[in-house]
Amino acid sequence: MLGDKLRFRFAKAGALRLLSHHDLMRCFERMLRRAGLPFKSTNGFHPSPRVVFALSLPLGVVGRQEVVEIEFTQQCDSDAVLEKLNAQAPEGLVFSSATVVPMKATALPRRVVYTLSLGGTGIPACASAGAQARMPVPPENQLGNIADACRALMAEERVWVDRLKPSPKQLNIRPYFRSLSVIDTALSLDLWVTQTGTARADELLRLLDLDDLLEAGYVLSRDVLELRDEAAAADPTDQPPDGPAETLPLNHAFREETPLPAASHFAPMVE
User: Of 81, 98, 221, 262, which one has the fewest beta carbons inside 10 Å?
Assistant: First the structure.
């Protein structure tokens, strides 16, 4: 199909998962130039291709179905552009589809699903045999404990995490949980994404006491990135939260949870 704005689905895996989002944007610019595609650029002193990602991918996370939209100065054949980009893409970056979208359309994320394999298959292929031998494989009873921890978080009315940017605060991320579960030997984090925020996978792994697995070499992947305008007729009872998440000042939360000791516990000051 012909169009002057195309939406691409692509995978970012292998060693390329360690490429930052800003480096990925520069990589896309090089691919577009090498492919000889008539991409549209922004205005200003430092023009850059009009390339918009639906949701940036955290560093180190594999992306299976990521989304990027690119604008062109003339109508292009989607299949031809797809072929040219794949021909210029580095190893680990694979474009799977290209569709024409209206110029005013915007890829707004609705839902994401992160997966962490707990059965040893999450080990990166680039890891040495010795490193793989040292990888901790959670036993069956630990998988049950993780599943219990997921159910406990889902049962909570509020789940508070610290957010330091753009301003220090505590944020209730519980409304963003669609489903936290263990499926076979993999942890699945099914999360809502809204225009005011979402829960982060690293926050949930800390809450589940699993962040040490990432340090040991297990790899987190984002397997689903669902867009608002591509979602099928949704169940009205299965919808993302409406409005911003509940917050508390970070210092207020600290005073409530960590009271200072009584004055009698202090030793007198001696000068």
Answer: 262
| Amino acid letter, residue 210 | L
Query: Do both 82 and 64 map to the same domain?
Result: yes
If one compares 155 and 271, the residue with the highest pLDDT of the two is 155
| Structure tokens that stand for 6 in this block | 């195309």
156-187 b/e (C-beta count within 10 Å ≥ 16 → b): eeebbbebeeeeebbbbbbbbbbebebeeebb
CB contact burial 199-223 (16+ within 10 A = b; e otherwise): bbbbbbbebbebeebbeebbbbbbe
Do residues 47 and 41 make contact, with C-beta atoms less than 8 angstroms apart? yes
Q: Residue 253 corresponds to which amino acid?
A: A
Q: Which two tokens stand for residue 226?
A: 């669902």
Q: Which of 83-92, 141-150, 188-197, 203-212 has the lowest mean pLDDT?
A: 141-150
129 and 159 belong to one structural domain: yes
pTM for this one? 0.85
CA angle 250, 252, 257 (to 5 degrees): 95
In angstroms, the CA 133 to CA 137 distance is 10
Q: What are phi and psi of 215, to 5 degrees?
A: -65, -30
Cβ 123 vs Cβ 211: under 8 Å = no
Distance CA 271, CA 267 (A): 12
What is the number of domains present in the chain? 2
Q: Which CATH number do you get for residue 52?
A: 3.30.70.580
Alpha-helical regions (H) of the chain: 21-34, 78-88, 129-134, 140-155, 201-207, 211-216, 250-257
CB 173 within 8 A of CB 196: no
Q: What is the mean pLDDT of residues 127-155?
A: 71
* Cα–Cα distance measured from residue 59 to residue 218, given in angstroms and rounded to the nearest whole number: 14
